[in-house]
Amino acid sequence: MSSSSQSDTPPDTPAAGDGTSSGIRGLADTAQTLGSSVQAMQQALLGNLQQAALMTSSMNQMMEELVRRAIHTTVEAESAARGCALHVKVLNRSPVPLTSLTLRLRFAPRRALSETLGVRLRGPGDGGLFAGVEQDGLLGPEADGVLVECAVPAGLASGAACAGEVHVEIERPVQLSGRVSVGFASPGTGQLLAVENRFGIHLAQLMRCAYAADGGALPEALEGADMLDLDLAAARSVFAVPPAQGVAAGAVLSAEFGRDRLLLRVVSVSDDLRSARCQWLRPDDKLLPLIAVLSEELAIES
User: Fold this and answer.
1) What's the distance, CA 104 to chain centroid?
2) For residue 197, what pLDDT band results from cuts at 50, 70 and 90?
3) Cα→Cα distances 114→117, 140, 235, Å
């Protein structure tokens, strides 16, 4: 009896495991596609976040620059005993309030000094900026200058202003260079920022300048000194000439510091009454260096 052999697997039936492999490959492809999509979304999200951060940073920088440009400071010097009084004002023209507000004044000689001079900065106790502040310092070859500062805890609202006064007392008059710095917190980041401006203090602003129609008995003229042409409008302001009083030949302009005094005699006045020709009178020899500086400050620019 003959027997025929038959295969355990039908001819048209796939081999065992082929369906499972196809499913796994399909899942792998799907997972890969999902992974690529997630990665693309992450990259897009990261790009959007970076762009948003860049826009925020740019907006902060623009706002900070706007605030910087909108902070206005003025410093005016007024002659006082052995120095001057500085009137300081800060105005906030920006649309945002200023917080963590500080104000600093720094002084240094405009020209190099061969000696060291003592300086005292003090604020009057009137409740303004620098009220009650007192700071001693040195100006000279090995001194960096004198610094005085104050804080404004209440800050400064938009459109508001604050003001104060600092008295500068110095051993002898010298031209000074000053810097006023306003510190405040960034409205966007909170980081501390500052705006700085420069100003100068002239020799004439550190001396008591006055006008006398009749100088009485006067010293002789300073030999070898050039005539000095003054703008009469400026001279009226510097030497406090009364508005109702005219400036005529023979009048005397004086600049005093302590017991030291410089005298300038009016020799003639121009026909249009806009300028006057003046002559220095001989002072003590120790005051001769001041004459060149004052002449430079007072002379009409050619």
Assistant:
1) 9
2) very high
3) 10, 7, 31
Q: Write the secondary structure of 124-177 as one string of H (helix), E (strand) and C (coil).
A: CCCCCECCCCEEEEEECCCCCCEEEEEEECCCECCCCEEEEEEEEEECCCCCEE
What is the DSSP track for 192-215?
A: EEEEEEEEEE-GGGGSEEEEES--
Question: pTM (2 decimals)?
Answer: 0.76
The H-or-E segment that residue 77 falls in is strand 71-80
Higher per-residue confidence, 93 vs 25: 93
| Res 237 pLDDT > 80 | yes
Tell me the per-residue pLDDT of 38-48, one tens digit each, with 9 for 90 and over: 777 777 777 77
Between the alpha carbon of residue 195 and those of residues 33, 69, 92, 181, the distances in Å are 55, 9, 12, 6
Cα–Cα dist 80/167, whole Å: 8
Distance of CA 282 to the CA centre of its chain: 40
SS3 per-residue string spanning 219-257: CCECCCCCCEEEEHHHHHHHCCCCCCCCCCCCCEEEEEE
Give CA–CA dist 172/256, Å, rounded. Answer: 11
**CB-side neighbour CA atoms (13 Å) of 133:** 21
Give the tokens for residue 114: 């061969």
Report the alpha-carbon distance of residue 52 to residue 37 in Å, rounded: 22
Distance in angstroms (rounded) separating the CA atoms of residues 43 and 31: 18
Nearest-angstrom CA–CA distance, 83 and 174:
10
Tell me the percentage of the chain whose pLDDT exceeds 90.
Answer: 49
